[in-house]
Amino acid sequence: MHITNGQSPSDQNGIRAVKSPIVKRSIVVAGHKTSVSLEDAFWTGLKEIAGGLHLTLSDMVAEIDAERQHSNLSSAIRLFVLDFYRRKLFELKAPAAHDTMGRGVGALL
Fold first, then answer.
1. Which residue, of 21, 40, 71, 98, is most buried by count of CB atoms within 10 Å of its CB?
2. Residue 91: domain span
3. pTM, full prediction
4. C-alpha 85, offset from chain centre
């Protein structure tokens, strides 16, 4: 990848990379204010998941924060959202296998 004339980066074939804007957002987690830096798609996905599970955004992020092991909070949120949608896709493709595994949406938190 290289940058020419101050334009967005392109690969060796001259195809321009799409910039993914990361936005820093403030949120209260477990009673303290913190910030996370997320792309809009992850922020939207997080809000959709929280709404679908009838949780506040703060409560959901507090659960993610409590369960994370080594990554920073922003990365942990990205991984949570990705895992949630991967599991949903798995459920659509193999509902019988999902039932035998005994893993529902509650296992994500």
1. 98
2. 22-108
3. 0.68
4. 9
